[in-house]
Amino acid sequence: MLYSLTRRALTGSAILLFATSAVPAIAQEDTTLSIGMAAVITSLDPHEDSNSPNNATSRNIFDSLINRGGSAENKPQLATSWEVLDSTHWRFTLREGVKFHDGSTFDSEDVVASLLRARDKESKAFASYTRNIAEVTADGPNAVIVETTVADPMILNSLSRIRIISSDYADASVADFENGKAATGTGPFKFVSYTPGDRIELDRNDDYFAGPSEWSHVTIRMVPDNGGRLASLLAGDLDLIEALPAEGVDRVESSDGMHIIRGQSTRLVYLGMDVARDQTPFVTAKDGSALGTNPFKDERVRKALLMAINRDAIVDRVMRKNGTVADQFVAKGFFGHSEEVEKVAYDPEGARKLLADAGYPDGFAMTIHGPSGRYVNDSEVLQAAGQMFSRIGIDTKVEVLPWSVYSNKYSDGEYSLFLGSWGVNTGEVSNPALAIVAGRDAEKGTGRYNGSGINIPEVNALLDEATSTLEEAAREPLLKEVSKLVFNDNWLLPMHYENVVMGAKSNISYKPRGDKYTLAYEVHNSAKTE
Description:
The protein is of the alpha+beta class. The protein has a domain at 265-498: Dipeptide-binding Protein, domain 3, CATH 3.10.105. It has helices at 7-10, 52-61, 108-120, 127-130, 155-160, 174-178, 226-234, 249-253, 299-308, 311-318, 348-357, 378-390, 403-411, 430-436, 457-466, 472-488, and strands at residues 32-37, 66-68, 74-76, 79-86, 89-94, 133-138, 143-148, 189-195, 199-204, 217-222, 240-241, 258-273, 283-284, 323-325, 365-372, 395-402, 417-423, 492-505, 508-509, 524-525. Strands 1, 8, 9, 10, 11, 12, 13, 14, 15, 16, 17 and 18 form a twelve-stranded mixed β-sheet that branches. A hairpin with a 3-residue loop joins strand 8 and strand 9. Helix 9 (299-308) runs antiparallel to helix 11 (348-357) and helix 15 (457-466) packs antiparallel against helix 16.
């Protein structure tokens, strides 16, 4: 639920939110947990690269000022309360008595160093969240003041994304985090070891301020191969796995000592297209010669591609109902969903006509790209889409790559047509729009993951206004208009929202989160009697 500011807050009256943290009565026993992640993380530096696997993993070791809950609610974490001083100044009161894993005391200097490090990092991976931060200053040892460049209605969400590190490591390298030297947080688990592409070993932080985890040791294994992840669960080597493959549902349900955990997510899967270059590298005439133009710049071609995809069949057969067909950033009921977005139906004949109208009566040839093992049945979804494009006269080759190879290339715009995704963790439109359709502007912090090269002045202006408007009643119509403009002109081709389907041993309980994060601290041993 979004935190709504009243008109009184804008005139200087403070709004405070206070923490009430119940510490669970859990005996500190020796218990181990093994989690199978569906994707490989790309860095243990919590400010180096912003993607769901990295951000979920970092939350095991590091805390943030704000704890973003599984239903996208803002909860106190290292900040116990906050108040609005005026439209561009927020004061955060910090939790006292918190220690880093090395025994040093957490204070305001650590918050200042962390927020500015995330803002000023060369990678600019967190620019969507830090772009409005003008300054962060200590207000004594137990409070900080965050100044924003404009009124920022999403500042709490933004701060929930940024992990707090010790100020001693503000200048640490990526390697220092990955070898453990700087991987010192205040979170529920302590770094033990990291083997890139394979696993992370963690030990329980017995002094965690919210109470110790019931797991004394956690192993997080990266197993992007669906078959391998399923086999490890069935063999008992893993206690809980992400993204249970559709072909494994029956096997888990029929196995003694196993069960399936299901839930809803806000993750949108879409196809992006290069709409920026006059000639795009992976599209040619059918004989392999260069095309004079980039077909994706024509809205008729983009709509033809969407009409060619039988999204209902993909959700039903390829994903085994582990998804819901999408038409825009967020589903009905979420902030910024527009009823004016056209629902495009499967219509291959109509798609062929649109291609002909656009000057491609015989189609063309293209290679489309996507990851393997990052999203639910991602390579199979891309293969199915490729076959459907071929049926309307577009000769289509499909190339899938490991996520670690693919992730930077697609977001940097190296491909012509690609499979992308965004977890809409805020439950509203500005979060995905700023990252994947706003014009790429490093100084403003927009478009960091806009691999399509979309740059629509009207959308950019609407987002500028929406993200500096504190009153929700005034902000929502702006975001609805963004949704309408993006999807009625088919700048992105929406595929589906992913459902959460996990496999687990029968003694494991977990409440799936909307952001699809798998957090060890929230995993419980349901067979244990406290």
